[in-house]
Amino acid sequence: MFKVTRSDKPEDWTNSDYTDPVVVKQLKKDFLSKCYLCEQADFGNVNVEHFVPHLNKSEELRTDWNNLYYACSHCNGIKGSRHKELLDCCEESHNVDTAISLEAPSVPNGKIILTNTLTNDSDLFELTNKTIALLEQCYNNANSGNQQISHQYLKEKILEEHAYLQNLRFELKKGLNRLIQREKDDLVERISNMLKRACK
Ligand SMILES: [Zn+2]
C-alpha cells in the first residue's frame, strides 16, 4: 500500500453524486492515479470506493468526502462491505507503505506473497493482518471469470516490472568492470527512475 495525502473536499462538488467527475478527478490526483488496494495505475475500470461501507444507505457515509477512495472495480468488488477494519492509506500514522511487504511470485503461476512486517505488540498488527486478508484476495483471487482476467492482468504487470528491474540489476552487476562510466550511470538512472516510480 502507499500513503495518500488527501486534498480538501472540492469546492465545486455541490451535489450528492459521489461519482461526479469533479470527485473522480480530485481522487485520481490525490491517489496518484493508482487503486489504493492493488496499486495498479491508470486503469480503465475506475470506481469510487467507500472505505467504511455505507450500509443501510447512510447518506452521511455515502457522501462523506473523507470516506471516498480511488479503486479499480476488481478490488472494489472483492472488498464490498465484508472488509471493514483495514489500514487506512489516508491516515499518516498507519505507515501503510512499510507495514506490508509484497513479494512477486518466483514462478509464473505462483501467488503474490504478502507479509505483515510489524511485531505482534504493535497497535496496528491485527489491522494489518485484516488488510492482508483482503489484499491476498485482490492479488490472488481468481474465482469468477472477470476476476480471473483482472487477477492475471495484475500479476503479469507485477511480473513484468519485477523482471525488468532484475534485468537492469543483472546488466549492471555483469558490466561493473566492462562498462564505461556513462553506461553505468545510465543503468543506475534507469533503476533509480523505476524505484521512484514504484514509490510514488
Ligand atoms: Zn485494485
Automatic annotation (TrEMBL):
InterPro entries: HNH
Organism whose genome encodes this protein: Acinetobacter indicus CIP 110367
Lineage, highest ranks first: Bacteria, Pseudomonadati, Pseudomonadota, Gammaproteobacteria, Moraxellales
A Pfam cross-reference name: HNH
Start and end residues of each HNH domain: 35-82
GO MF entries: endonuclease activity; nucleic acid binding; zinc ion binding
Protein name: HNH domain-containing protein
